[in-house]
Amino acid sequence: MAALVSVSCGSSEPLPNPGGGGGPPINHSTGCKRGVAYGYHTKADMQVLSPAVSWWYNWAHVPDEGVKPDVYKTLGVEYVPMVWGGGGLDSNRATQIAAEIPDGVNFLLGFNEPNFGEQANLSATQAAALWPHVEAVADARGLALVSPAVNFCGGSCQETDPFKYLDDFFAACEGCRVDYIGIHIYTACQGDGTNKARWLINHIETYKMRFDKPIWLTEFACDNAGSLAEQKAFMIDALDYLENEPRIARYAWFSGRADNVANANLLGDDGVLTELGQAYVAAPQKPCE
Questions:
Q1: Is residue 195 in some structural domain?
Q2: Is the pLDDT at 217 greater than 60, yes or no?
Q3: Which of 20, 127, 139, 193 has its CA 20 to 30 A from that of 120?
Q4: 37 found inside a domain
Q5: SS (H, E, C) the chain
Q6: 157: domain CATH number?
Q7: Enclosing domain of residue 133
Q8: How many domains does the chain have?
């Protein structure tokens, strides 16, 4: 396993209000794991999430326009870039991406759901052949590297089973550098028994058995929540597990605002947390180690 980047990402010190004026100081997250998968932040959005969210990504390699050039840094929220797919990815493009990634970055996310026809749409062999270019981006900037992020796929798929896809990727990419395993999980929120996140937990336990690296869960939510109450119960049980599971290095809820997962939005109007967003911010976190 390649050496992992050690990052200090927590503080109990209040930060100045980025809007200036008479607003109260902003206390940013003292945890390192909790993030959000969202690509349309405003300053106000990020400000209300920052008391609990220590990092975010937006499926791109440069930050959202709404928080450029350094709003997120002021709020103590780390940006994590991604090489989304393989289109046009060669040595020249890798050099360009590396040059465009902002300063202060520590990690790089690999391809987004390459086993999905509607996402990065790469076979495991194709992803492995392109991976040296992703490594080149990471090496140029001294970044730790997260594997292609996989999920169970239905419909148009390179591979329906994410475990098999990663097995095939690593078999075809012998000697490639991967520091973390990237995964997405959307599952029912009824669970079995009293824990509403049991099926999510079961999937993660399988990843733990199959792969020996730390895990980044970069998208998750209950995909069949019939009510806000069901989604909230799922979230609370999931967060308790994720915060206390040593193999989970980071996780990110999907999403700030989205119309393809019911009852899952953390944000309502600009800079306003939904009830679910309030629960995400308020849920206990373990301090950075």
A1: yes
A2: yes
A3: 139
A4: yes
A5: CCCCCCCCCCCCCEECCCCCCCCCCEECCCCCCEEEECCCCCHHHHHHHCCCCCEEECCCCCCCHHHCCCHHHHCCCEECCECCCCCCCCHHHHHHHHHHCCCCCCEEECCECCCECCCCCCCHHHHHHHHHHHHHHHHHHCCEEECCEECCCCCCECCCCHHHHHHHHHHHCCCCCCCEEEEEEEECCCCECCECCHHHHHHHHHHHHHCCCCEEEEEEEECCCCCHHHHHHHHHHHHHHHHHCCCEEEEEECCCCCCCCCCCCCECCCCCECHHHHHHHHCCCCCCC
A6: 3.20.20.80
A7: 28-282
A8: 1
